[in-house]
Every structure is written in C-alpha cells, then in structure tokens.
Amino acid sequence: MNTTLKLKKATYHLWTFTISKIISSFGAQVYAFAISFYILQTTGSATSFAMNLICSILPRTIVAPFAGYVADNFSRKKIVILAQIATTLAISGLLIVSITSGLSLVAIYITTCILAVTSTFSGVTFSSSITGLVDEARIQKAMSLNQISISFAAIASPAVGGLLYGYVSMPVFLMCYIVASSIAIILESTMDFKLYANRKEVSEETEKESVFQSIKMGIQYLKTQDVLMAIIWISLFINFLFGAFQVGYSYILIDQMKMASQHFGFTEGAFAVGMLLMSIYFSIRKEVRFPLLVSKRGILAMAVVMAAISIPLMVSMNYWVIFSYYVALMFTFGSLIIIVNTPIQVMMQKKIDDDYKGRVFSIIETMSMALMPLGMVIYGFLYDLLPAQWILISSAILLIMVVLLLARPAVMRKAHPELTKNPSLSKPETMTS
User: Which positions, given as ranges, span the membrane (predicted)?
Assistant: First the structure.
C-alpha cells in the first residue's frame, strides 16, 4: 500500500476509532447509570450497590495481566471484535432474563463482571494498537479523540440515562445498548490493525510461552526503560494520593459545605467539561515538544488545586461564592488531567516496543487499579479521624515532593536529551509550544 493510501486509511481509522469509542463508552456509562439507579431504587441497599461496584473493579484488576499477554501474542483485531461480541451477548443474556423472569441482582452482578472483563481486554488491546492504526504524526490526535469520546460520554450519559430510565422499560434500555454495541462491532471489523504496526511475527515457540513467563518478560523489559519506570512510579503515587481528592471532595461539599445535590452535580459536570475542551485543544494543536516536562508541571498544578479544595474550610465564604469557586476549581482540575495524561500517553506509545505494549499497559492498569481502592480505604479512615483541610494539604505537599524526586532534572534530561545540550529550551515549553 502506498503512502497516500495509508494516510487515507489512517484518517479513516481516526474517525472510525472515535465513533466506535463514543458508542461503546456512551453505551457502557448509560448502562452503568441505569443499573445503579435500578439497584438503589429496587433494593434501597448501599451494600447491593457497592457489590455492583466491586463486580466492576475486581475482575479488571485480576484479568488485566492476561489481557496484556493476549494483546501481545494474538491478533489485536480479533481480540477487540470478540470482546465487543461478548459484551453484546452478555447484555442480550440479561435482556432475556429480564423478559422471562425479571431482573435479579445475581444476573446483574454476573453481567457486570463479564462487561468488566470484556472492557479490559478491549481497552488494553486498543491502547496497544494506536501506533498500528494511525501514522506517528497523529498519535497525539488519536489519544485526544479517544479522551474526547470518554469525556463526552461522562457529560451526556447521566442526562440521557436519566431521561431514558424515566420513559422506557429496562428491556428497551438493554435493546438500545445491544444495537449500539452491534454498530461498534461493524465499525471495528473495517479497521486494519496492522496498517502501521511494527510487531514481530509470532512463532510457535512464542505462542507456547506461558502467561506468567510473558508477564515476567514485560516486567524485565520495563526495568530496562528508566524513563518509563519513573512515569509508572509517578502514576502509582498519583493514583494512591488522589484518594485524598476522591474521598475528600464529596465529603467536604456534601457533608461540610451542605451543598445541594444539583449544585454538586454542576461542579462534577465542570470537571468533565474541562476534560472535554482540553482534549479538543490537544486534538488540533501540534505535538508537545517535551511531554514529560509538561506533565510534570501539570501534576504540580494539580497538587496545588488539591490543596485549594480545603480553602473554604479555612476562609469564610457565602454559599454562591463557594459554589462558583468549586466549579472553577473542578474545571481547572479536569483540564489539568488532560494536560498531564495526553503528552505522557503519546510518549509511551512512541517509546514502548510494539511487541510489549499490551503487557506494559496491562501492568500499569493492574498496579493502578490495585492502589486506588487502597487509597480510598485509607483516606476514608483518615477523614473520620483528622480535619479534612490538613489531609488535603499534607497529601498535596507529599505529591509535590514525590514528583520533584521522581521527575528530577536527571530524569528529564534522559527523557529529553535536547535539554542537556540547551537547558534554556525548557523555559518556553508551555501549552503553546
């Protein structure tokens, strides 16, 4: 295939990939909203609701390493399509159960577990396939469009889910999801996952290699990549320390600020809007020159925002000032997440060998998912014992110290050798460079 045709195919992939992700992300989030609402409305039990969350998180943590192994050793196109087909069949099964005998918690939990597994295989494989689907010059655009689809789903799904839930029955709801998932299968089947792929041919010996040997090789590969290891350690600490934000934000606004539920919803909406607008910006701007440097500064800014959440606890403000303050803060926070994530994701896509992408991304997902619940449990305990403002400020200071240590100048120079030759290059590296 000549260069012009490959570029046209890559452009087709960009939009097909985005539409497919919008459909699948939107469908999954609307489904999650409806099922959560159904469980709470039917049972009135927080325990039943929490069980559904566990059924969503635990399988992802368990199967992520296997998803990485499969993505690196088998056809990525087949994995993505089979995962989407399995999603469609799982929802179809739940639809049949709802029509024949009515929805039960057991059926919902089983379906949630299956969807968690299929989304892990699909997500890890798609992340591993970006460099095979589009040309190198548009990797940042592809990552941004992916984030746009996720942000759009996060903004629109609660509204659409609430509207549909109020006007249509659960079987109709599930049928809509089945149709959407079927469209995603058709779109994904038209994509060429090998267009720009640089994978070695899988030999019979490689196919016989055990899952654990394969994961071990992935870890050994990571150990040879100093910059990637620094990025992974930073991401692990962020996921843990941001338990202070995840637990503290809702606790402060609802319990201590007594904010009305609809106003609290607006602040969360501002977060999604910030992510969406910054994703759109990254999709049209040129690639960031020094991604790790931009991400480092973005994380430091996020630490400042995290500490700033505590200010209304220490300074007297009226209700509407507090509301406006948190809307602005969450919009900024959402924007900063994209500023941190997008350059790093592009950098990792380019630095990680194509044959190890699945395992590396799955290792990152496993470690991150494992630390998130731990962080939330520990911070939940701390918020019951200590003043919220000091927990947030201490966590922000700790995050700043971790980033300054793990992303120290020596690591920066290793990631971006140009800085060694001309240190002044780092000064103008801003969002406009």
Answer: 12-40, 46-67, 79-100, 106-127, 148-166, 172-191, 227-252, 264-282, 294-313, 319-340, 360-382, 388-407
Strands (E), 326-373: none
Mean pLDDT of 304-309: 94
Provide the token pair at 356.
């190890």
Count of CB atoms situated within 10 Å of the CB of 160: 16
**pLDDT, tens digit (0-9, with 9 covering 90-100), for 25-36:** 777 777 777 787
Q: What is the CATH number of domain 215-426?
A: 1.20.1250.20
CA pair distance 326, 312, nearest whole angstrom = 9
C-alpha distances in angstroms, 113 versus 27, 31, 33, 327? 16, 14, 16, 34
What CA–CA distance (Å, rounded) separates 331 from 270? 5
Domain boundaries, the chain: 3-188, 215-426
Query: Global pTM?
Result: 0.74
Q: Report d(CA 154, CA 283) in Å as an integer.
A: 18
With cut-offs at 50, 70 and 90, classify the pLDDT of residue 369. low
C-alpha span between 73 and 217 (Å, rounded): 13
What's the CA dihedral at 53, 56, 57, 60 to 10 degrees? 180
Instruction: Give me the mean pLDDT over the 362-373 stretch.
Output: 72
Pick 407 or 146 by higher pLDDT.
407
- DSSP letter at 256 equals I
The residues near 326 (Cβ < 8 Å, ≥ 6 apart) are 253, 259, 267, 309, 312
> Rounded to whole angstroms, how far apart are CA atoms 398 and 392?
10
- Tell me the residue type at 23: I
Domain 3-188 falls under CATH 3.50.50.60: no
The model's confidence at residue 205, banded by pLDDT at 50, 70 and 90, is very low
DSSP class of 195: S
Based on C-alpha coordinates, what's the Rg of the chain?
Answer: 22
Rounded to an integer, what distance in angstroms lies between the CA atom of residue 60 and that of residue 56? Answer: 7
pLDDT digits (tens, 9 = 90+) for 322-355: 999 999 999 999 999 999 988 888 888 888 888 8
Exposure string for 197-236, b = 16+ CB within 10 A, e = fewer: eebeeeeeeeeeeeeeebbebbeebbeebebbebbbebbb
| pLDDT, mean of residues 8-26 | 85
Phi, psi (5° rounding) for residue 304? -65, -45
